[in-house]
Amino acid sequence: MEKRTTYCGLVTEKYIGQEVILKGWVQKRRDLGGLIFIDLRDREGIVQVVFNPDFSQDALAIAETIRSEYVVEVRGKVTERAAAVVNSKIKTGKIEVQVAEVNIINKSETPPFQIEAETDISEDIRLKYRYLDLRREPLANTFKMRHQITRAVRNYLDESGFYEVETPVLTKSTPEGARDYLVPSRVQEGKFFALPQSPQIFKQLLMIGGFDKYYQIVKCFRDEDLRADRQPEFTQIDIEMSFVDQEDVMAMNEGMLARIMKDVKGIDITTPFPRMTYAEAMRDYGIDKPDTRFDMKLKTLNDLASKMDFKVFSEAVKNGGAVKAIVVKGAADKYSRKDIDALQEFAKIYGAKGLAWVKVVEDGLNGPIAKFFDEAITAELIKLTGAENGDLVLFVADKSSVVNASLANLRNKLGKDLGLIDENKFNFLWVTDWPLFEYDEELDRYFAAHHPFTAPKPEHLDLLKSNPEAAEANAYDVVLNGYELGGGSIRIHDQEVQAQMFEALGFTKEEAEEQFGFLMNAFKFGAPPHGGIALGLDRMVMLLAGRTNLRDVIAFPKTASATDLLTEAPSAVATAQLDDLHIALNIKETANTEEEKEDTK
Amino acid sequence: MEKRTTYCGLVTEKYIGQEVILKGWVQKRRDLGGLIFIDLRDREGIVQVVFNPDFSQDALAIAETIRSEYVVEVRGKVTERAAAVVNSKIKTGKIEVQVAEVNIINKSETPPFQIEAETDISEDIRLKYRYLDLRREPLANTFKMRHQITRAVRNYLDESGFYEVETPVLTKSTPEGARDYLVPSRVQEGKFFALPQSPQIFKQLLMIGGFDKYYQIVKCFRDEDLRADRQPEFTQIDIEMSFVDQEDVMAMNEGMLARIMKDVKGIDITTPFPRMTYAEAMRDYGIDKPDTRFDMKLKTLNDLASKMDFKVFSEAVKNGGAVKAIVVKGAADKYSRKDIDALQEFAKIYGAKGLAWVKVVEDGLNGPIAKFFDEAITAELIKLTGAENGDLVLFVADKSSVVNASLANLRNKLGKDLGLIDENKFNFLWVTDWPLFEYDEELDRYFAAHHPFTAPKPEHLDLLKSNPEAAEANAYDVVLNGYELGGGSIRIHDQEVQAQMFEALGFTKEEAEEQFGFLMNAFKFGAPPHGGIALGLDRMVMLLAGRTNLRDVIAFPKTASATDLLTEAPSAVATAQLDDLHIALNIKETANTEEEKEDTK
């Protein structure tokens, strides 16, 4: 048979009366009144092809042997469907193809699961047969969208004068940040490459090299324990610009996101995006990536709590912690004590020791701690929180980090549970003025909140030594609907400042030199001011495609144990391969294998 | 100072009379008659800025402190240059900028080498200071071109309905092909990922998944000993299509290359490209990637040689080898005996034991072996080779592979040496009908000439068992000016054929199952016919940019020992990192380290 004339999913009314050649997969076969109907599928959709003995006895005979997922080609005439059998759900629903000729191109065994939009097959099975899973329309559509998104990004950045430059995958291990994936060198015994956690240093070197505007859509790697929204390899839209300030990078990025929304979703979003400082986000939402599609802000009640006779509250404040509350509008009647207990259990996940609550009723407050609220305190609570008759007020009193984490997550949960979120909204938001450092209590040292190349605000330079915790950075995160979409900063371009930064992070001069000497060296030869941003492509696709699982937007994803169930990577390799790389296995015997040894004695 | 108004390199006559703000690097400072002239450089080029005390005494004072590679910003008025000082070599040569204000943004130490187009600084130094090397105009231009090429590729493929899909970097090690880079798994003790040598299997799985048209510009990895035109990580334009035959893939590829040539070089190239079978290429050029920009074809003289009394010739044929010749037009007088000896030494690199030669003179042949050519043989030689009076004829007699390799390389050398090559020509060529297998004498087994997924010609299926060497593939290479630009094939989509292929390659059923079971399994569930191509992006950029070194087209390349001289990757890592990965160093003590031990006793 000749080449196909179009895709199955594109055979609309305009083909009526024409002969078409189509190639695709058999979605479904139905035998009805001496006729055979087949839904033929390709990446563009489904078309109904009809085998009618009046049209071709031979084709009908072949059709009788056709099963699901066979690959077939058909030649036939497009006819209009009778009004009664029009399927308005699909683009090809007004026509069908009367088959004159059919060939089976390839057969299929009965697949392990049916190829259909909705499936309750376990993800493990679907990952093992990923090529079948990818035939499912929702997944196929996700990858179309992923393509459209990168296309929009490239078009925007190309038109804005950015050059795409590739940076190395085999690069240098640095102890800062997450765990590196290592690659042993064959040529240099005992040495290792690392897969990049981001091209951060290379893009800065490109700026020092005068490239001025760089971008790359690039794979990055982190050997971390995986959660549902993490993958060992992930894709980043990586951008860097010279001679810019924070406003330039933010404006460029707003333009890019607006372009994506327009090209991919057909939505005009408003720029500039709303902004919030990190401090405001933590104060009002308890989290650095607020979902602003609904209100229910956190209210700080420290002053009020100090005045109360309720020790849980007053002690928390006294110990340097906080008391905050959220108001669940009109929820007083909806939430039983049992329901509230469940909320408390949820809050405990985030470290809260308890969840205090009151219901606002006509004549005051209700609930086990209502007694601690006298008239004045109640009035102040009402004033501070805006709570009204019929509202439920939830309190957490603890150290600030626990208060924020538990109430922020409770807020997000309630937003979903109560249907407060308009799923059609895309709320972009900047979170600015980040702290430069984060203090790690366990390791008793400061870490860079973003990374060690982030520029302190010039007026905070002195704080690097005197009060690191108070130092703020020219850093900015872009948030979409409660997810961090990306983050960036103006970078240090002065070797002195960079040296101070490494010192503040606890590096000795020698360590800084050994790990980042080449960058410090580069700063000596005319580094321009520069800054940039990196956005997580996988997460962006997930959000725009309305998925909740990162694995749905990666063609061949890995499971939580970083396994590819399809190819069964990682796998054992030949000892000779390891010898070549000057390494050997070094497997600690676990209790388990000891037991096994016992068993085999 | 405000934002720049344009790039330095773009300040042409149209700015005359306007005030501009420019930011860039100081290329050169000249002090002349109380004025200071600075060539200010950014990625778009150079502009001359003038510090004149009549215009700004302050600016002049600052200018006196400015050195090469300082980063500065200037505000000034664009004026026309006097006719006598117009520089027609640069775009901004008709103007200069009279500086009203200047700021030093960042200083520079004296760089280890001057930033100029031509340099004789060693490559090692330039790689160590790659960020400075990248400021050199020829290199910067190469990366602009690289960007333009990928842009043209994406535009063409996007418009042609291809989806870009990312395939994994952490994937499965397979013993076939080159040596893998391995990545130890932390989660799965004793197991390893491999970095992909190509996304071959994944793109085939995408076809089985119904994606229909796939592309990706993707990093691939081979842990091989490096030559000037190899890098451990390289970039491939990777393409796959379903329901296509060889002609479809070739036509698509021709369209893409034509688009690149048009968009990037402004050249209209003719499609379809000329074609040559592999057998013809080996016969006429001795090589599978002929440079067709000049003639000098290899002439096969086996029949003639058999008839001759010259044992070197006749024995070669008798032993199953070949005798071939190339005619160097008009070179009889140019090449002395010493010159020809040098050519012989060159031929020996490729295994030739000697290089026989005759010069065609008015009354016959000249040279040490002329005596073996009687009148009839001479006439036949003249007829077969087209040699004329004044030509030099070079012969190699040996086994075919040696004859071909030595004459092909000699031909390429002579083409260059004699200026026979029009460097402005871009000769694209298809080499088709490849053998399916290559025989490795050392290992005494067949290898896939392309890869084990290449489809045999349907009519050659029986040869897989009976006569593998004669089996041909639906495979095609695209060649540009003597370089392999890319290669592709129609793939096997039938599990039976794939199983036969693995068998022919010496895999046991178990080995095939273990390594490629998931692919064979996928073939069971409706694999469409499919094929594709992969092109080497680095090499393409190198050829179009007129470079001869792959490192010039890679932003951060590695040396022949796979080292990044800038970051000093690979490097030693902490033992704790290795412990996490369940590996240990396994360094064999070499004679050298033994000696060192002796020394330290």
From TrEMBL, chains A, B:
CDD domains attached to this UniProt entry: AspRS_core, EcAspRS_like_N
Binding site for ATP: R222, D223, E224, Q231, E484, G536, L537, D538, R539
GO cellular component, one term: cytoplasm
Protein's cellular compartments: Cytoplasm
Major enzyme class: ligase
Residues that hold L-aspartate according to the record: E176, R222, H450, R491
Organism superkingdom: Bacteria
Main localization category: cytoplasm
Protein EC: 6.1.1.12
Region spans: Aspartate: 200-203
GO biological process terms on file: aspartyl-tRNA aminoacylation
A single GO molecular function term of this UniProt record: catalytic activity, acting on a protein
Reactions this protein catalyses: tRNA(Asp) + L-aspartate + ATP = L-aspartyl-tRNA(Asp) + AMP + diphosphate
Domain (Aminoacyl-transfer RNA synthetases class-II family profile): residue spans on this chain: 143-557
Keyword Lyase: no
Keywords: Aminoacyl-tRNA synthetase, ATP-binding, Cytoplasm, Ligase, Nucleotide-binding, Protein biosynthesis
Function: Catalyzes the attachment of L-aspartate to tRNA(Asp) in a two-step reaction: L-aspartate is first activated by ATP to form Asp-AMP and then transferred to the acceptor end of tRNA(Asp).
PANTHER family xref list: ASPARTATE--TRNA LIGASE, MITOCHONDRIAL (PTHR22594:SF5), ASPARTYL/LYSYL-TRNA SYNTHETASE (PTHR22594)
Quaternary context: Homodimer.
NCBIfam families (alphabetical): aspS_bact, PRK00476.1
Family affiliation: Belongs to the class-II aminoacyl-tRNA synthetase family. Type 1 subfamily.
Protein's name in the database: Aspartate--tRNA ligase
Native source species: Macrococcoides goetzii
Name of the gene encoding the protein in the UniProt record: aspS
